[in-house]
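Q: I have two molecules that I believe assemble together. Could you output structure tokens for the complex as a whole instead of separate predictions?
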Amino acid sequence: MKTPALKTLIAVNMLLLCVNAFAQNNIRYVKAETLTLIGKAKKTDSCFQRIDSAEAAPMPMAVRSLAKQSAGIAVLFETNSTTIRAKWKLSGEVYLSNMTPIAHSGLDLYCFRNNKWQYVNVGKPAKGIDQEQRIIENMDNSTKQFMIYLPLYNSINDLQIGVEENAIIKSPAHAAVDTTLRVVVYGSSIVQGASASRPGMAYPAILQRRTGYDVINLGFSGNAKMEKELAEYLATVPADCYVLDCIPNPSPEEINERSYPFIKLLCGKKPNTPIILVETVFRENGNWDQKVGQRITRQNEEIRKTYNRLIKEGVKNIYYIETTKLIGNDHEATVDGVHLSDLGFTRIADALLPLIEQAMKKHK
Amino acid sequence: MKTPALKTLIAVNMLLLCVNAFAQNNIRYVKAETLTLIGKAKKTDSCFQRIDSAEAAPMPMAVRSLAKQSAGIAVLFETNSTTIRAKWKLSGEVYLSNMTPIAHSGLDLYCFRNNKWQYVNVGKPAKGIDQEQRIIENMDNSTKQFMIYLPLYNSINDLQIGVEENAIIKSPAHAAVDTTLRVVVYGSSIVQGASASRPGMAYPAILQRRTGYDVINLGFSGNAKMEKELAEYLATVPADCYVLDCIPNPSPEEINERSYPFIKLLCGKKPNTPIILVETVFRENGNWDQKVGQRITRQNEEIRKTYNRLIKEGVKNIYYIETTKLIGNDHEATVDGVHLSDLGFTRIADALLPLIEQAMKKHK
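A: Yes, here they are, computed for all two components at once.
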């Protein structure tokens, strides 16, 4: 038998359920391109790709394709909504044995609180192309500044941010990322973000949060072999500091042939912009596979030679960091011996941060 | 025109290619169950599952199913082969947005060198069920002790280790894991290993390598709700220390009802075995979603009450660790706010290690 009190409770609960369902249904979606985009080298034809198609045309085919992926791009906005949802359309289904779907195809939401960027939650991709997810709900309704990182190893054809119907959503009045201070990172899959657990843990993104600078991810998986066309492009990208972490993929012979003219071209066109040269991470299997180990040692010997030659010639504003200083010495910082886990990315960000601050300070 | 020297070089190279091809083809496979298995609570009907089917019968259906997954089980062997390959048959294809395929369905190879376990390489799963991969090659041919961790979120029906035809492969004469010192960890998806980048980075595996103890992974994703049947089973598992990290999934009410009788039952049957109680990791989205935040706070309040009650009753050998001490305070240690990345797992292992050593020392 139901008492009157119980009946009232049931009625109130049903009403609350209805209100909740109503709130769920009244979500207003806003196109992400109407908000603020950061992590972009320049404007591009399709706004969620990294290099404009016309500018990418002279580059190697693999780089042209990878430049369409959204690694390092993030959307900044402020809202007083207590719920944030997202709809995004991926260009294809991806399978990578060394990455989580959240990292290659998901979203990663941060909020600027107490003068710091703090993780909020992720947009988890389901199998398939069209995604729609609630990222967070039940927040207080104060106005906050948010940032959503886009997928690291996929392309986005459309992205919409959902908030409560009556909530404000707009570009931040005072963006917590200083887009006038720009660090441009050119590199391999590691720079692109393999194998962060989520988009915000790729090391350019960690550096961006820690410094407040706009850090541009020009990491190209399996590539970054220092072709002349890439040096020419990089020289056109507004930058206050270049990080060249492009030793993992070219052969020792390619590094010998290409690294000197590549850096000379960049220095020639941007004589006042500091450059940080990063040796390749020592692939963990190279501690066991003797052929792999020898190759890595030779790669780093070749870039060191180029650095010494540049220093001898009196090139200024060039910094160098050795492989031994990048990811610790416990051999635990990678998922597959090559690509860094969040542990490895945290360590490499710790290692690069002082160099970047030093380079930016001198440059300012 | 080819000089005689060049001709000789070509002939030698072709010969080397043939030898290499020959060596590739001459791999001898050994059934993993003929080697040494660690990380096992007890013997089981199918050797790569965690709980014997008959013993699992009274447990909740989800736990019975998860007990078939191979989390925490590893194979120990020694070989002088310069190449190690593996064939493994998975029970099914898995998609988890917060895990890498290497973690849920792959293999993770370590070698004992300079008195430490050092990462060698992983066995990357392709899509599908039947896997065959080269894990490492071109090693020197000294005899070494290896350990292969099995998949965290999949079951293995068959596992074979491949070495060169004439190489020795056998159980280690002196295993570098002391199977007489046993730590049994009961918990949720976090204990099971979500979201380590690879099987060896789940925290029970990290603790196993750091201590040399046999650490048993009884983590059950979405479960570990302290049912009586589980307490009864745990009491039958040979253990020198229990870690109860089972607060993430039961509701505050369930913790209130179940935690006291669960621990009392275990203490009653194993009065001399130390128990380490672990508060739940504070889910990162709980810093924003007020309902989630309140629930986590209440979960930890309830287990704290139980701990205080046990201490008041004079129960000895019980240790307690608070949520604030587990994964740091930068909010960066998870993939999805709940499940730990390698960064989070490294931190929680750092936090638990001194407690485990203290508990084991007193117990010895």
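A: One point stands out. Residues 12-23 of chain A have pLDDT under 50 and may be disordered.
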